[in-house]
Predict the structure.
Amino acid sequence: MCGSADFVEKLIKAGAEPNVVATEYLLTPFEWAKVSYEEERDRRLNDFDQVNRLDDTCLAIRPDIKPFKQVLEVLGKNGGVEAKAFSNNPKIKPEPGLRSNGSMERQRCYG
């Protein structure tokens, strides 16, 4: 997976819906961008103490999350939301929902 804000902008300009639910976990692209996961992992594994405890054969690599943050900004500006499909109050429900332009579409429904 890669983060390309320019590509996401082109897709949205071409008419792509930013809230299509996908995968068995029913994630939207806004949820799929792995910013929080990588931030937490970097905080946990790449702090000063953890890096200094590594032996000589190990290499600590910091993740580049800047492109993913840019993708989240583009998605957020264009109506991207978290589906929260398995919560008590999902934002995107199994029945057809409103697209960001106001029309009803089955593209966003699941189930």
